[in-house]
Design a protein that fits this description.
Length: 415
């Protein structure tokens, strides 16, 4: 053996593995015929002049059936043929190359074969097109993947649509339930202007704020406003119990302190052990006396009522000593009185208003800002005041993360 022969991969020697060169394709023609993709060449009118064995095998056709007898468009489905004639062929003639076009070919056995087609014009020395060379890739796996992806996307869209429908249905149900915890409308009272408003921070959560106003007899009218702890169904149940207990108590005995005591006992009896529940509330009664309203009210841990005077001032009614309702069996409540004259307005509100976050530092809106807001608008009627506060709540945007109830009672200014 000559020196170095064993190291030459192109030389075969006894007892050695086949030479590297023998692993190469036998010829360029074999490479063309057995390529992992389809090849065909067509004349400019589309007549097939040459086609490889790979593509013939995919289609289940013989060379004699195809070469010189069929055009490339004849191998396509009806839709593919239309697209080829109206788009593919004209673009190819203009551009000279077109790649990655998805088409479908007909097979002898019947099933359609999804393919990706790339075609290039071969030109002569004078620049005139001579024939079209086309490469065809089997896109069956890709089509299956695309269909699975499409089904998954369609299923995801349907799931999103169903989820949105469910949310809309839930929002509607929650809105109906929320409205059931509030008076449908406030009564018309001679010589008295009233207005109420409820702002829902989230349409997907039941709030715990409440208010009501109703005549007790021919001369007196009772009212209350409050906020229960928590949110959701449990808060709604507590709100319902609180509202109807207070209403029944005030119809029976319109004494604000006694009425809050009745509510306190009801909550202590209903919510005991590991599930304590409580609320803040302000309850009151007013009586018409000439052109004034004599108001008595008591607070159970609730933010102080605000009075806007006809002279252009505003002040809080301090109800010192008022405890949370439903926490202690011996809770104490203190009564406070005031007189509303023509042009005066009494405002009750829940802490969603004063605890809104405002400004770059997200600071609490607070009682001082509310007092200044009210004083800047005094004197103002009940409806105008509630409208102004509604706009303020809207301006808070996402800084308002708690429900807010408003109830205003006033004596219209004398013309």
């Amino acid at each position: 053996m000559s020196p170095g022969a064993a190291d030459d991969p192109g030389v075969e020697t006894p007892g050695t593995r086949p030479a590297f060169s023998s692993l190469l394709e036998d010829s360029a023609e074999d490479l063309y015929e057995s390529a992992p993709c389809g090849y065909l060449s067509t004349l400019m009118d589309g007549t097939i002049a040459k086609i490889n064995a790979t593509l013939l095998g995919w289609l289940g056709l013989s060379r004699e059936e195809v070469v010189g007898r069929k055009r490339f468009s004849d191998l396509l489905t009806v839709g593919g043929r239309l697209y080829h004639e109206t788009h593919f062929a004209p673009l190819l003639r203009m551009q000279g190359h077109l790649g990655g076009v998805a088409l479908e070919m007909r097979t002898a056995a019947g099933p359609r074969l999804p393919v990706l087609v790339t075609s290039t014009l071969k030109r002569g020395s004078d620049g005139e097109p001579l024939l079209i060379r086309t490469t065809v890739f089997d896109a069956t796996d890709r089509r299956v993947y695309e269909q699975e992806l499409l089904r998954a996307r369609r299923a995801a869209d349907e799931a999103r649509e169903q989820a949105e429908a469910d949310r809309a249905q839930l929002r509607e149900a929650l809105a109906v339930l929320q409205r059931s915890l509030l008076p449908a409308a406030l009564p018309d009272l001679p010589g008295v202007e009233t207005a109420g408003y409820y702002h829902t921070a989230s349409p997907m959560e039941l709030g715990g704020d409440f208010y009501d106003l109703f005549p007790v007899d021919d001369t007196r009218t009772a009212f209350f406003l409050g906020d229960v702890c928590g949110k959701g169904p449990q808060a709604a149940a507590l709100t319902s119990l609180t509202r109807y207990t207070l209403r029944a108590a005030m119809i029976q005995d319109a004494d604000p302190v006694d009425d809050l005591s009745v509510l306190n006992r009801a909550l202590m009896e209903r919510y005991t052990g590991d599930d304590p529940r409580f609320c803040t509330a302000v309850a009151g009664v007013f009586e018409r006396a000439g052109d004034t309203l004599r108001v008595r009210l008591a607070s159970g841990g609730h933010p102080p009522a605000l009075v806007l005077r006809s002279g252009g001032t505003a002040e809080y009614l301090r109800t010192r000593g008022g405890m949370l309702v439903g926490v202690l069996p011996t809770a104490q409540f203190t009564e406070v009185s005031t007189v509303l004259r023509p042009g005066d307005t009494l405002l009750l509100y829940t802490d969603g208003l004063t605890e809104a976050r405002v400004g770059p530092g997200r600071r609490l809106y607070g009682y001082e800002a509310l007092l200044a807001f009210a004083a800047a608008r005094a004197p103002v009627g009940s409806r105008a005041l509630v409208d102004a506060l509604t706009g303020l709540l809207r301006d808070f945007g996402d800084g308002l993360d708690d429900d807010t109830a408003l109830l205003a009672i006033g004596v219209p200014a004398t013309p």
